[in-house]
Structures are given as C-alpha cells and as structure tokens.
Amino acid sequence: MDSPRPARRTLLRGGILLGATAASTLATMPVTAAPRPRRRATDYPGARWKPANPANYTRAHRPSRYPIQFIVVHVTQVNYADTIQTFQDPTAKVSAHYVVRSADGHIGQCVHDKDVGWHAGNWDYNTRSIGIEHEGWVDRPEYFTDAMYESSATLAAYLCEAYGIPKDRDHIIGHVEVPGSDHTDPGPLWDWPRYIRLVKSTRTGA
Question: Quick check: pTM over 0.90?
Fold first, then answer.
C-alpha cells in the first residue's frame, strides 16, 4: 500500500531545514588542503596511455633497481592497432614501452619506463633499456614516414635527457644489435644517420 504523499510545503520546509543544517555543518568543518593532482598515466607527455597486460612485462623500480642505459629501436611487422592488441593479450608474453604510428607519428605508451618491457629477447638488455616499436615492415620503407622519424626522435631525445642516455649509436640501437637476438629489425631501410641526427638536434628539457 502506498504511503500518503507529503504536501509540497512540507517538502520545501524540509529542504530548507536540510540546507541550513548542511551549511552549519560545513561552517564548523576544518578546512583541508585540496587533493593533490593525480600523476599522469604516461611518462612521456606526448604519448597516450595504451597499457599492456601485466602478464607481458615485469614490474620494477627503474632506474633505482636497474639503470636505464639503452633505447632499442624495433619495427612491428604488423600495424599499430594489432601491436597494441598483442601487448594487451595476456598470452603474448611480449611488450615494448612505446609504439609509434606511421601515418601521423602518434605515440602510445604501453609499459611505464620504470617497469621492464619484454621486447629485446635478452633479459639483461630488457632490464637496462626502453623499447620503441615503429609501425611497419622492414622491407616497406613507405611506412618510415617523416612524421614517424620526427615523433620517434623527439621521444628518444626526451628519454635520453630524462635518464642520462648518450645520444649516440652505442646507446640507441636496433633490435638486431641486441646480443643473442634472432630479429633483423629495424632492417637496412631504416635511416639511422637521419634518426640520430634528429635525436641529437632535439632538446626537450626533460
């Protein structure tokens, strides 16, 4: 059975009383500091967060636990979307920190810099490096666009400045150069002189 509905005047009077009570309570509450802003999801300000599945990387506290000494350059051999999807598949057992899209240089971050991505095929290098994947195929240079080179080089320069990595070919290496690797990327069509020149000429203030 329905209860009788209160009159409109009763509702208004109750609202006024509640409002007065709330105002009185607020007046007597201690003033507290505003909440601190949340830490941004990405380490690199130009990236968008595309988190890898936790089953595909190792949580760590770099650079306090492991030094960050290298950047490893990769080429995906699949498109950008499929790369992100692979990193989010808990059965894949692979991930890189960043993925750069070919068409516009958009950057997705999949693993935090402090954590160890599974990208190099060598545990020692994984612990001491940040992996940057580039959308494309090693035998299709049309994927290595100006936007990709410039965006990736700016990212690499930022990481070098943030972690004290020298901006040279001894410390910015291809996947093929990782000891024990059976991969060939980024391949002979990747323009290393151009890429390193762009990295060296970029100052990000990281």
Answer: no
Q: Which of 133, 142, 150, 177 is catalytic?
A: 133
DSSP single-letter state for residue 175: G
* Separation between Cα atoms, residue 106 and residue 145, nearest integer Å: 12
C-beta neighbour count of 123 within 10 angstroms: 12
Helix residue ranges, H only, 39-145:
80-87, 123-127
Query: Cα–Cα distance between 154 and 156 in angstroms, integer?
Result: 5
Q: What tens-digit pLDDT sequence spans the chain (206 residues)? A: 333 444 433 333 333 333 333 334 434 444 444 444 444 699 999 999 999 999 999 999 999 999 999 999 999 999 999 999 999 999 999 999 999 999 999 999 999 999 999 999 999 999 999 999 999 999 999 999 999 999 999 999 999 999 999 999 999 999 999 999 999 999 999 999 999 999 999 999 88
The alpha carbon of 58 is separated from its chain's Cα centroid by a whole number of angstroms, namely 15
Distance from chain centroid for Cα 205? 18
CA distances for 128 relative to 30, 40, 89, 135, angstroms: 48, 23, 24, 23
The question of whether 150 is a catalytic residue gets the answer no
